[in-house]
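lol ok so funny story. i was supposed to be doing the assay writeup but got distracted and ended up predicting the structure for this chain instead. priorities right. anyway since i did it might as well share w the group, maybe its usefull for someone
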Amino acid sequence: MPDHMPHAAFTLVIATFVMTYYNQQSYPKKITCYNQHVTLNRIKGFEMKSVKLVNCNLDASEISLGCMRISQMANDDISTLIHTALDEGVNFFDHADIYGGGQSEAKFAEALGMNASLREQMILQTKCGIRKGAFDFSKEHILEAVDGSLKRLQTDYVDVLLLHRPDALVEPEEVAEAFTILQDSGKVNYFGVSNQNPMQIELLKKFVKQPIVFNQLQFSITNTGMIDAGINVNMEIDASINRDGSILDYCRLNDITVQPWSPFQYGFFEGVFLDNEKFPELNAKIDELAAAKGVTNTAIAIAWILRHPAHMQPIVGTTNPQRLKDLCKASDITLTRHEWYEIYLAAGNTLP
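and the output, tada:
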């Protein structure tokens, strides 16, 4: 501190400099993350944490933005949404070649004016394998689909490629060939699956040399099949039926990160459970906790998923920037064990 400057004035200068610096940062800084929760940013008064990843050197936010519904949005609105995500610490964006018939990928890049500097701030994930009236995990289709996604996204590579739902006619040898070609060419860095059970993944792993890093699965407060059977082991009730081969435990044992899709939906795209009169007890409990913690009900719904020790990475599909800001605060909330079970029971579940 200069001799002529009063202490209070010097402190004010330093504080002003620090605040100016952080306010000028448009995007969260990359931080090396090796299998541990670390803060990605502290810009907006809360901490967006990274997701715990194994076999993968990605600095990924623990909340991902799904881009399925952006194809009908104006470019300015898309740009606002994506930049809001980046400002809030969300750097992981989920796509698929079928979203909007390919337009979701194309408009994402077009609206942002995709360039090398912006691309470095993002982790892009896309999916392939769904065709009109069929699933297709053939080598030819996987390679063709990735080239199409790269062109639409205006990038030379995607960070993650997922196989989109299971293909009953899958030949894992072909998948292995396609994955190796894509990795060796630098077009894809990491690989995963969606909606697959343990034996389907094991079949792939027999031939695929790359680790399966992600499995995208339906999971929300009202869609809890992945945990119901584990809670109700050895019970002669519907909740005890194991419908997925213990996929959640399998993913935890094999260091596969679960990405819950439709975290606000009940049933199979039947609607949103939040503020829904069909779920009065659940909404009353969520609203009570939201008020106590000074956040919205969306933040509590995501915090409930993040509280699970599997370190899941929920994919949120909102196109509303303010709603995105609100739910991102879930990353700064840790529900107690009692609060987590209160929500689970309020959703209509019972404990044995």
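Residues 66 and 94 are 5 Å apart (CA to CA). The radius of gyration is 21 Å.
back to the writeup now i swear
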